Amino acid sequence: MSERQPFIRNFSIIAHIDHGKSTLADRFIQVCGGLAEREMSEQVLDSMDIERERGITIKAQSVSLTYRARDGQDYYLNFIDTPGHVDFSYEVSRSLAACDGALLVVDASQGVEAQSVANCYTAIDQGLEVVPVLNKIDLPAAEPERVMQEIEDVIGIDAHDALPVSAKTGIGVPDLLEVLVRRIPPPTGDANAPLQALIIDSWFDNYLGVVALVRVMHGSLRRKQKITAMSTGRSHLVDRVGVFTPKPADREVLETGDVGFVIATIKDITGAKVGDTLTSTDHPALTPLPGFKEVQPRVFAGIFPISSDDYNDLREALDKLKLNDASLHYEPETSQALGFGFRCGFLGMLHMEIVQERLEREYNLELISTAPTVVYEVLTTKGEVIYIHNPAQLPPVNEVAEVREPIINANVLLPQDYVGNVITLCVEKRGVQTRMQYLGKQVSLGYDLPLSEVVLDFFDRLKSVSRGYASFDYTLDRFQAAPLVKVDVLINGERVDALSIITHRDQAQSRGRELTERMSDLIPRQMFEVAIQAAIGSKIIARSSVKAMRKNVTAKCYGGDISRKRKLLEKQKAGKKRMKQIGRVEVPQEAFLAVLQVDQQNK
Amino acid sequence: MSDALPPLGLYVHLPFCLRKCPYCDFNSYPTPPTSAQQGRYIQALLADLDADLQAYPHIRTRPLHSLFIGGGTPSLFAPAALGQLLDGVGARLHCPLGLEISLEANPGTLNLKALRAYHALGINRLSLGIQSFHAPHLRALGRLHDAHAARQAICDAHIAGFSRINLDLMFGLPQQNPQQALADLNTALSYAPSHLSWYQLTLEEDTPFAHHPPAHLPDEESLWAIQHAGLARLAEAGYQHYEISAHAPPGMECQHNLNYWQFGDYLGIGAGAHGKISSRSAAGTLVIERRSKQREPQGYIEQALNGASLLASAYQLSASDTVFECMLNALRLQEGIPLSLFTQHTGLTASCLQSPWQHAITQGLMQNHPKQLAPTALGQRFLNDLQTLFLPT
To answer: Each residue of A10-21: pLDDT tens digit?
Structure first.
């Protein structure tokens, strides 16, 4: 055992969004002197632009701090950040695998939320010490007694000594650090055993190449050492090792229990897969550490460049995003309407939005994405089982024996007052109640829900019917047969594959009507009337139209000066560039997501 | 391919008005010139013309096709001043007999005596900015004349001997209903003008109307009803709709404007005037240059009289710009232009048109004719969409 090992503390913070995780982390960094005051101007951990703008954490990250405890002993704290949104729950188990304990941070006025419950169970399952903390104790609405009771009722851990803190004002933070070093155990692990380092995260840096964030489980990892990635068997020379303070700081060695980064001569991210084990090439470990289950995308959508010239740029951009986001899946797809693009798989709607936003913002691409869908299991009349990621692929009705949709087990946690609203919502979303449990003032509802009903807007609707108090977590459970039909959209008689949706038969009529109406609002008037129809097979179930424009002509003659007229036309052309030509009809980007807006209108 | 260069027009810009109308986006200033200022401005114009002639020496050998004095309100200039201008032009350029010489004039600034004097100068075409015969609409447009002055000006022009008279008339005015618009058109036709420019009020960028749009503009359906009925009425009266807004009995078309639309050449002199001149390089290829002049009149006068350059811009057109500019103009004409005229006036081959031309035919915006570049009826209604197809990428 190294001299430092007994004093290392590896921990995560489990908290719901907005419950103050980032602020608390910043406070730790400040108390431990990781950054000067002026560097604390922004929350430092959420480093991607989008993360900061949306106030969420997407990727796991770590900070190593040195804390001098009241007994005069220096402790080496490694804080491993976890994402707080349900879309990214799989990232949580990864982060927790590097930890020996976790702080459960609960807002002292809002109480426990479903996401925290789920993550807390994951931590307990992994044998972590969970330390409850009540945050925002400075707020007048804080009810520490009630929330302590709630933690005990809902999660079932002892919370009577939960520390009251305010990450914002700093109240209680020094005490919390004392409790942390006392309660969270030091890492176990054999310093003399062959190296086993678990890759918690890895990303591609334009200057450094592949950077891997690792937890050294056994042995040690030195600069200039030769290491082998156990899943690929490939060997690499270690260029640099170090820790994030949160700025990267080089070290000579990472010892047993340390969490830090490794930069080796690894060319691409597949050489440092998350969950893989790095070992010493000369004295390799016999077996790899248990890794992570590979995460499966749940939401699928087509992404197409507006201009077909951008197809290669889009591919390159996706390749680059994939370097840092192993959960992003994509494969080439051809749409009759939209041309060449990619069918992409995402963890959820938020993940999809983020990827799309990054493609547009960081890679300057103009894109059309199709309405998101889930994967359906289809039993054909020939007895084959196929999986459909795109509604357009659904075989003709006469070849389909059964369509099965993914069902989730949902857990909703909410204050009693909103039970009625939430049940109504779940029923509307074709949910079947499996459980209802009163826990203090909170209610825990279990529902089996079709995933397709959940991915689009369930999360937002849940928030709005419960004034933001209900929270939600789910696991994928099974495929289940349902009377599902494909609704096609025809624009001027032309079937537009990219607009097809799969929906429950009972909802097909109203979905079709809403969809055509919404489309007719979104498609601008053109030289001719545009007919928009929704159809199941050859049967038209809804129609609407966009009246023809009468004319588009500038009457006045500018005589010799053509420059103004040219500017006017260039402006018109720029507006059209953002549209896709379907037959003769110019269809704007938003129209392809009309199905989402239909749901929003219903709110 | 013929070596002949396109016909050459001369545009003279007189940028002064009594006041600025709220819909107008031309280069004009509400500062009526004194007679001394008129003299100085005419001198400046001739200096401007001299500079153009120095830049394009071959111009002297090209006969002038048309001359147009526009503004602004050119009728603010006294006949004597315009006489100096025409004398100066005559001394510098080859003016054939029967040359079309047009003058723009506003009813509020005219009297019979002045009109007789203009006619005596050789000005043989008058373009009157009537806009409407309905007093409330004239006020809404900020025009200085009333309905009576409008009628009087037309009568006086006839009496003064003008046989070619254009009336500018607008429709789609605030609170105007289709009956009123048709009444205006019928009144205009009752004078049997040789030409009618009948166009819809457009809210141009950076005008008072654009910033504060007048209330109660007719909606799209009323506008359509007006246009539909008006075009039928004009056709019935024997006027050919030869360009988006221009109507004339056969043979009475405005030669000067027609030359713009057929992508002809023109010199532009005066503050803010634009010109387009073709010439042949030593190797015989057609070179097209555009130039524009200093916009602000006082600066224009001073620079001209000091012998300084008046150019605000001067550049050669690329092939793609040439295609676009030619089509931008030609497609305004109901009949378009023959392909041979395109090749002659652009110096380019038909292959330069191929993709957008084909596209326009497929969309039903241009006629499917191998030798004529012409819009269809749909293309005329959606001219902006059609012209956009020819924008350089």
So the answer is: 999 888 766 777
Instruction: Quick: pLDDT tens for B285-324.
Output: 999 999 999 999 999 999 999 999 999 999 999 999 999 9
Model confidence pTM above 0.80: no
Q: Are A10 and A100 in contact (CB under 8 A)?
A: yes
Sign of CA dihedral B263, B267, B270, B271: positive
Distance of alpha carbon A432 from alpha carbon A411, whole angstroms: 12
Cβ separation A584–B363 shorter than 8 A = yes
State which amino acid sits at residue B243: E
Closest-approach residue (CA) in chain A for B224: A550
Contact A532, A487 (CB under 8 A): no
Residue A34's pLDDT band, with cuts at 50, 70 and 90, is low
* Burial (CB count within 10 angstroms: exposed 0-12, middle 13-18, buried 19+), residue B208: middle
Task: Write the pLDDT tens digit of every residue in A575-592.
Answer: 777 788 888 899 988 888
pLDDT (0 to 100) of residue A85: 59
User: Regarding the domain delimited by B320-393, which CATH topology (the fold level of the hierarchy) does it fall under?
Assistant: Arc Repressor Mutant, subunit A (1.10.10)
As annotated, the residues of chain B forming the CATH 3.20.20.70 domain(s) are 8-258
Interchain CB contact of A565 with B (< 8 Å)? yes
Using a CB-CB cut-off of 8 Å, the residues of chain B touching A560 are 11, 260, 266, 268, 273-276
**A562 φ/ψ angles, rounded to the nearest 5 degrees:** -95, -5
> How far is Cα A117 from Cα A121, in angstroms, rounded to an integer?
6
The fold of B8-258 is TIM Barrel (3.20.20)
Q: What residues of A are in contact with residue B380 (Cβ under 8 Å)?
A: 553
**CATH 1.10.10 occupies which residues in chain B?**
320-393
Which one of A307, A547, A561 makes the best mutation probe of the B interface by having the most chain B beta carbons within 10 Å? A561
DSSP code, position A151: I
Question: Which among B25, B243, B260 has CB closest to A559?
Answer: B260
Averaged pLDDT, B40-63: 96
